[in-house]
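Project standup — Tuesday

K.O.: blocked on the structure for the chain from last sprint. Re-posting the sequence here as requested.
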Amino acid sequence: MNLEDIFNGTGFSIRGLSDIPEVRLPVFLILLLVYFSIIFGNLSIFTIILVNPNLHTPMYIFLMNLSAADIIYASNILPNVLNMLVTFYNVISFARCMTQMYFYIALTCTQVLLLEVMAYDRYLAICHPLRYFLLMSLGKCASLATLAWTFSFVITIGHIVLISKLSFCGLRFIDHFYCDIAAILKLTCSSTFDVEIMNYIEGVLITFNAFLFTIISYMFIISTILKIKTSKGQRKAFSTCSSHLTCVIIFYGTLFCLYMRPTSSYSPARDKFFALLSGVIIPILNPIIYSLKNQEIKVGLKNLRRKIMY
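H.V.: unblocked you, prediction finished:
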């Protein structure tokens, strides 16, 4: 596709991360290193859990799904950004833009729901330990993970259909490094009311409810931990959910900064910063957090090394 496609209504031009030629190579090398780190880190977590039968428990099954979501999430955006930095070709077709946006929204919803069911899993493990394996069997775990993926990818279809029906006027220039919803809506000359309503419906139905459920789960978890009589017991109980809690705080912090505000308050510089945190920092931090704070993952990593070496 060439630049004429931007004017005849079949494509967009994406600004990218930098307009300065001198900084493109350093940015490319940094992002390439980050992308490989995301793939390696999350693939390592996925593989460690997969090859260690003792890690085939609900908490680690959910973590394996989260790692898979992080890999696809980063791969949906970063390869295209890297390509733009090298080739200086910042044009993207309408269909590819909608596809990128679809996977971005769907995977964000998937991560939200996976973090929610992981909070529920930690609630059951700490507050109802004697009934944990009855309430959270592997079959129920698989059903919840499948539901998270399916619901997210189905509900996002309506969102993309509404956006794809919008009319765009003038130069179709996206002031972002990927096809972001807010940046796209700034280009349309159609009414964005339906899309805005869909944004808030998804925000309340998925993100806010999941966040509220997670907060309530941790209120019960903290209350239960405080009732444990020994400090050693409290530390042991809290260690089973500290990694998840850290990921939740980072994830929702960036998510709320990105989307919990009207489209009229869209700021390209601010949104690029938080989008970079969401798309790059979170996927690379998740495996690091779980690796550093989880003794079973460390043991699983040692076992994997032995299998590779011998």
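K.O.: great, moving the ticket to review. The longest strand covers residues 11-14. The beta strands are 11-14, 91-93, 173-174.
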